[in-house]
Each structure stands twice: as C-alpha cells, then as structure tokens.
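Give me structure tokens for this 259-residue protein.
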Amino acid sequence: MKLITATPWGVYSVWWRHFQVYRSTWLVNCLPPVSEPIVYLLAFGYGLSPLIGEVDYLGQMIPYARFLAPGMIAIGVLFQSFFEGAYSSFIRLNFQKTWQALLTAPLSYTDVFLGDWFWAATKGSIAGTITGLVAVLANLYDLSSLVLSLPLIVLGSLLFGAFGLLVAGAVNKVDQVNVPIFLVIIPMFTLCGTYFPRDTLPPLLAKFAAFLPLASLVDLLRWPLGLPPWWPLLLVWLIGWMVLTARLAALRIYPRLFS
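Here you go.
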C-alpha cells in the first residue's frame, strides 16, 4: 500500500463521501455550530455596544460591534473545523471504522488523511463565511473585505482542522477530547482578542494569548480596521502552526491503522 502518495481523485473521493453523509442531515449538523458565533455576534454586538461604545484598537477608536465581528468570524472557523477534525474524525476512526473501510479501496493513507482534513477545513470555511455574511448584513464588515479575507478563513480552517485531527489521533476515548477543549480551545476562544483587545490583559497573559494561533487569525481578519506592522510574521506563524499540526496528526493517526 502506498502511504505518502496521493491523487487529486483519491482525496476528492474521500471529501465527497463525507459531503454526501453531511448533506443527508445538513440542517441538524450545521445549525448548532454555525448559529453559535452568529448568536454571539448579535448578542454581544448589539447588547454590549451601548455599554462599551468604542474600543481603542491600534491607536484608533473603533465601534465595539465592528471590532467584535472579525473575532466572531474566527470563532466560527475555530469551532466548526476543530470539532469536525476531533470528534467526527475520532468516531470515523474508532467506532465507524470509516478510515479502515476507505483503505480497502484503491486509496492511500495520504488520500484518506487529506480527504478528512480538507472536509474539516470545508466545514470551518462554511461557518466562517456564513458568520461573515451576517456581519456584512449588519453593516459590521464590508462584503469586499469578506471576499478578500476568504484565504485567511481557509487557512484558519486548515489549521484548526489539523489540530482537531491531531487530537483525534492522540486520545484513546472520546471523553478525552474534552481535555484540549478546556486547556486550549476555551483559552483561545476567550483570550485571543475575540471579545476585547489583548492589551487590556496583564502582560504575561497577553503574551500567552498572542502565542496561541487564534490571536494571529483574529488580528489578520481585522485588517480592514488596521494591521500591526509585523503582520507578515502572523501569516508565517499561522502557516507554521498548520504544517506542524498536520504533520503531527498524520504521524499520530497512522499507527492506529497499521500497527
């Protein structure tokens, strides 16, 4: 069996298989994770804006709702791609044995891995785009800015989808997926500049938050409001995280199939 070779048709076949399963119950599958960042955007945006008014971001005062919108797009990307990569891939790998069944077809391990990864990234991209469209309708994010931000949404989805796959390959029981959620996902969700500027945090905590990849994604998605001068490093940082987590995920899942 070829392990490192992949064909576009093989990867697409795996992706298409997941899409067909998802399409059969698409409303049940997509409503909770897609609605969550949208509800946050509407609730915090309209609920807290009268109380907060404006926030200081990169030396300029920004209406709070416009500051919040890119953070909610990033949250949509994070939740949907991570949970698909972690929970759904774990179930397909350990309970449904979908990976094992796919490998009986003329597919390589890389085909199956990339198909699963790209499907997780697809769900993250859909969630981020839909949340962005809600922000556009609420006049909190320009449509042209959303279109130009699509590569960032895809990059973030690939990163967090790979992180989810790494978790699926590292844990032995489905309950253990909760550990990285509480140790990594929730700190990113709350501290990485999604709801408030990170410079309001204590210096050490602000540095920890900036180290987490969601902080870079939020800063880059906030580009219509301004970019920090070191923004190319943020992009390299995200790509580095993506490559590292995808590599580690592939190495962790492989022994579960062939040992």
